[in-house]
Amino acid sequence: MNNEKFGKFLCEVRKEKNLTQKELANILHVTDKAVSKWERGKSFPDISLLEPLSKTLDLSIGELLEGKRSKKKENEDLILMAINLYKKELKKKRKRILIITSVLLIIVLGITYLVWHFSQPKYSDSLAFTQEYIPDEGNIKGDIDTARYVALSPDFAIGANQYGYAVFIDPDKAFLRLKKDYKKGIQLIKEEFHCPTLSKNNFICYLNLGIQVTTGTKEEQEQAHFVSSFLDIYANSFSDEAIYNMIDRTASSRPNIPSGWAY
Question: How confident is the model over 63-102, as pLDDT tens digits?
Fold first, then answer.
């Protein structure tokens, strides 16, 4: 089939129908640039467009393909059958592509989640709450006012691990409560020291720098100081390895680390 002959014929018939390239394009749901390319012999319409194009121009598909008017119609049914088969195969192909794409997307999202999940620091089972925290009794370390924490919120209930160090009885619940009730202090630390957003994965920056804030209101500063003291207890639920990994990660993400910044 001669593209130039087809394009010239298409242009002639379109003008006979008093259609502009844009009007024909709108009917076929293509761009007027596509129609222009067809008429200049630069490209050919997709086979799925032949039937609607022929109907719009009152031509048979055979006439459209031959690039001239003809009274012969005997091959029209075969041509339509071929086009319909093509459309069905195209539909099946698109469905297969959609299924494959969906499966690949699910796999990628699954792998991404697993990588994220296993990269998150885990509470150490050996450092979990096992006993009451009563200063000066048994192997209890430090002198933390647990009643003060509980008065602030029952979620801040403190116990001790097997080594006598203070830990939150439910670290996750305590951490969520901190983020909810102490937003002002957390935001102050973040802005003054350019810490990453507070999370279970990078709280060391807030632990060390919350006590050093110099800006903000008195309320914000008090909250920041509490955030630091809270995280000092919260850190006891993690192994040394997890803490060191957080320090490395946080330090590498912050361009200006104050001198003496360490856990």
Answer: 888 888 876 665 666 677 667 766 777 788 888 898 999 9
Structure tokens at 78: 């075969």
CA dist., res. 235 & res. 246, Å (int): 11
Quote the CA–CA distance of 241 and 251 in Å, as a whole number: 15
**pLDDT tens figures, 22-74:** 999 999 999 999 999 999 989 888 888 888 998 999 988 888 888 888 766 65
Residue bearing tokens 């993400």: 253
| DSSP of the chain | --HHHHHHHHHHHHHHTT--HHHHHHHHTS-HHHHHHHHTTS----GGGHHHHHHHTT--HHHHHHTS--S--TTHHHHHHHHHHHHHHHHHHHHHHHHHHHHHHHHHHHHHHHHHHHHS----GGGS--B---TTSTT--S---HHHHHHH-GGG-EEE-TTS-EEESSHHHHHHHHHHH-HHHHHHHHHHHTPPPP-TTSTHHHHHHGGG--SS-HHHHHHHHHHHHHHHHHGGGS-HHHHHHHHHHHHHH-S-PPTT---
**Does pTM surpass 0.85?**
no
Whose tokens are 């469905």? That residue is: 95
Distance CA 85, CA 215 (A): 73
Rounded to 10 deg, the angle between the 183-193 and 171-181 helix axes is 80
For residue 101, give the amino acid letter: T
